Amino acid sequence: MTTATTISARAGIGRASVFQARGITKVYHVGEVDVHALRGVDLDLYEGEFMVLLGPSGSGKSTLLNILGGLDVPTSGTVRYQDRDLTKYDEAALTRYRREHVGFVFQFYNLIPSLTARENVALVTDIAVDPMPPAEALGLVGLGERLDHFPSQLSGGEQQRVAIARAVAKRPQVLLCDEPTGALDVHTGIVVLEAIERVNRELGTATAVITHNAVIAGMADRVVSLSDGRIASERLNETKVPASQLLW
Amino acid sequence: MILTAINRKLVRDLLGIKGQALAIALVMASGIATFILSAATLESLEKTMTTYYDRHRFAHVFAGLKRAPHSLRERIAEIPGVAAAATRVVVDVNLDVEGLAEPGLGRLISVPESHEPAINGLYLRAGRYLEPGRRGEALVGEAFAKAHGLQPGDTVRAIINGRRDTLRIVGIALSPEYVYQIRPGDILPDDKRFGVFWMSERELAPAFDMEGAFNDVSLVLMPGASEAEVIRQLDDLTAPYGGLGAYGRSDHPSHQFVSNEIRELRGMTVIAPTIFLLVAAFLLNVVLTRLIATQREQIAALKAFGYSNLEVGWHYTQMVLAIALLGAALGTILGAWMGRGLAEMYTRFFQFPILAFSLPLRIIVSAIGISFAAGLLGTLSAVRQAVRLPPAEAMRPEPPANFRPTIVERLGLQRLVSPASRTILRELERRPIKAGISIFGIAMAAAVLVVGSFMKDAIDSILELQFQRAQRQTVTVTLNEPSHGRALREMRHLPGVLAAEPFRALPVRLRHEHRTRRVGVTALSDDAQLVRIIDLNERVIEPTGDGLYLSAKLGELLGVKPGESITLEVLEGQRPVVEIPVSGFIDDFTGLSAYMRLDAARRLMREEDRLSGAYLAADAAQIDRLYRELKKMPAVAGVAIRTATIESFNAIIAENLLRIRLSNIIFATIIAFGVVYNSARISLAERSRELATLRVIGFTRGEASAILLGELAVLTLLAVPLGLALGYTLSALVIASVDSELFRIPLIVRHSTYGFAAVVVILASVVSGLIVRRRIDHLDLIEVLKTRA
To answer: Do A123 and B305 touch (CB under 8 A)?
Structure first.
């Protein structure tokens, strides 16, 4: 047994796994070249866990997140979500999976510019099974006062917090964040990370955050480093640093 | 209802493109308006006609003859398939109408004095029906009554059998036989100079030596009866009595015009809406493709949150349907308004008891369906793009566009073009399909303008050819009976007559293989200068030989070519039947004509020096005196005045066509503007980042706009010639759709029309350019650069 799986197993003691990815590869065909984005990744994510996926750009972390989130399918390997095999899902089943179980936060927020903060959240709660009211979700990320602002009237950090509220309002089992602070300065970035931290803590949502910023790793339960499409290392944080004390 | 977030997005996105959406909706509305206009008018007209015909028992078969005894009626009624037969006396007389210098033509029709006729019944608009035993009473047709302000109680003077008689009007009536009321041989109504009168048979018959006799038959057929067979048997029965050949409704002058109009309307429901809706579909395609491209990441996000492909597709489809619905609504309102106008115009043309414009819900529903279909057709590929977009891929920014040096540069000519022009050329060459679609759209606008305007050219040319080169007589005098040459000499001596040329008119039936047509042959003297024959190359020709010169359309209908021969049956005199060569085709625009040489006609009829009438050239100063003399001549059956014909041509055809032209031009301008404005706005949206960058690095506003506006200019300049060519083709299509026995339009497009179309399109370009230029001037540089491409 490798060190990585041992660490993974330690992280999972006493918890059910949300994801079980085994032997994931992903090959893109760009023109006449094959790009191997993932070259055999085994990864678990446990209930309530806060995981940071660390790696330089091109290391395959976004691809991995997209596969876990049902936005993309692996070239080979299996992904189990709870007791279901995502790799056997068709387009419609994946859509249902995303709708019911996954919250996404993107680097560039991906808010709908023509909708207010509240409406952007409602976009998701409209189709979710047991959502929280949009205002409550926005309150959770500290935007209770800015419900009716359009994205263009919000700062980058505020926009990203709207995106987080939108992601968690459906009460997802997993929250997947792709470089959530990538477009933000330190101060704003920390406010956003606090919001994610709070969601993870208070709602117990299993959370995976992708970043190339190693400092953020400090707030995770577990840190997985990716390099060139493979897991390079994995460690457990004995003590988590609160987001508010991060510095970069 | 609480609006869901995605529907709010829909509404706000629509508001965000409101200018473009409105432009598209207007183009669509133009198409829908023409559809509503023609479909609803078509339905109103058809329904009105059918009801009128049914209620007033419009006959199915008609025949004129010289004189037959009443006893023949029984034998006619016994023809298998005949449900009812009516016989009567129909005569044309000269009218002496107050306020009209020239003689008018009155058609007197006998009716039973005790009851309304059983076939071809009358609709009494005002006054009362004839009262038995009262002499001199008449009902007058509404058109003539209106033209002269006649009321029951007024009188009209007519020359009845050489005697001046007074007709007292007791009622104003309409008849299904005279929905379109024209003088025999004419194609346009002249309500001032031609009127229909209904008089008691007991009074009319003796006056024309028709006691116990008749000269006109109408038949109502049983359902399923063979019209052709009835006509054949009726011809056999009437031939010994100078039968002029029976014909069915399809050859009935009034019905022919009404059904021709219906046919044209039917064509109109297809051609014009198709053009407009195709353009609208194209515009929607451009706008939606662009919108979906800019919303790539939004679409990806929606999908990431669990919106299904179907929901995303439906979201954009709704956007299209909303625009289409707006177009359909505007178009319906506009179409209904125009339809009311058209119906009103028809009441001037057609004499119906009532012609109300109605717009059934069914037509509105089809209009909405059609606009939805057009919208969906245009946006299918764009929506599919949104549906197919893989969310993970859409998260990544679009790769930079692939550029390469243009042909100009590869040929090493780059020194000839400035960097700005190079940018323009590369942009066009990089996306040739997009450029091609824009060019096609703008070209379509130019094409519609050409189609909308060329009618005027055609009418001008008809006027010139028909009334200046072919028919140059002042008046055409028709005699009651074919007369001796002495009549011609008399006419030459009438006051103000400068020249008089005889003609012989023969009612004939032309036959070639199984095809036949009843027409009049006009025989002209060899030295005729007033009325001349013009060939297909617009050259005046001097007829030679014994053959016939036919309207090209008549030749086509008979399936005959110049040089071949056809059977000619004369329906007058000894009724000779001969094989006769077709010497040539002539170019005319109304009706079906046949000409031959006077000598040949006389040989055919074995007669000498006979004429049916004469063409007179007269001195304008003495024209009133001439008219007075003509009114007095009992032998004169009718006088047709060339200027009056031109006048009614102008008043009716020209005015209406020009009105249609005006609305076409308005619609075409909407298209031109819609296409150009949309193209410009989209280029701006796509390239605002690039333009802002240029501004940031020090380009002036003018230099930055030059790139975008230059592209627009290049597109417009490429599109204009294509559009003009397309316009010519579409005009040919329109001409083919109105081409009929009654009326043909030559395909003539003048330079000025092309010029006009080009100018309007270029103007639309300039105005759109100015609007876009203002936007470029106000680009928020920082904002634009902040947003991710």
So the answer is: yes
Nearest to A119 among B5, B308, B395 (CB): B5
Helix (H) or strand (E) holding A39: strand A33-46
Domain chopping of chain A, boundaries? 47-72+99-245
Residue B266 neighbours by CB distance under 10 Å: 14
* More confident site: B321 or B789: B321
CATH topology (fold) of A47-72+99-245: Rossmann fold (3.40.50)
Nearest residue, CB atoms, B8 vs list A110, A119, A170: A119
Domain ranges across chain B? 497-618
pLDDT tens-digit map of A79-131: 999 989 999 998 889 888 988 899 988 888 888 888 899 999 998 898 888 89
- Nearest in space to B765 (alpha carbons), one of B683, B703, B690: B683
* Chain A residues close to B788, C-beta within 8 Å: 108
Show residues of chain B in contact with A72, CB under 8 Å. Answer: 390, 392
Residues 151-170 of A with CB under 8 A from B: 166, 170
DSSP H helices in B389-532? 391-395, 407-410, 419-430, 432-464, 485-492
- Least CB-CB distance to A71: which of B307, B308, B391? B391
Distance in angstroms (rounded) separating the CA atoms of residues B532 and B530: 6
pLDDT digits (tens, 9 = 90+) for B33-72: 989 998 999 999 999 999 999 999 999 999 999 999 999 9
- Does the beta carbon of A69 lie under 8 angstroms from any beta carbon of chain B? yes
How does DSSP classify residue A88? G
Cα nearest neighbour of A65 on chain B = B392
Q: Check if the beta carbon of residue B395 is closer than 8 Å to that of residue B300.
A: yes
Q: What is the pTM of this model?
A: 0.79
ipTM of the prediction greater than 0.90, yes or no: no
Q: Assess contact for B116 and B205: CB atoms under 8 A.
A: no
Does residue B305 sit at the A interface (CB-CB below 8 Å)?
yes
> Does residue B441 surpass a pLDDT of 70?
yes
* Cβ contacts of B789 on chain A, cutoff 8 Å: none
Find the range with the poorest average confidence among A225-229, B416-420, B470-474.
B416-420
How far apart CA B337 and CA B464 sit, in angstroms, is: 35
- pLDDT for position B90: 95
Average pLDDT, chain A: 88
Tell me what percent of the residues of chain B surpass a pLDDT of 70.
95
Question: Of A99, A100, A114, which has the smallest distance from its Cβ to B12's Cβ?
Answer: A114
Q: d(Cα A49, Cα A206) in Å, to the nearest integer?
A: 5
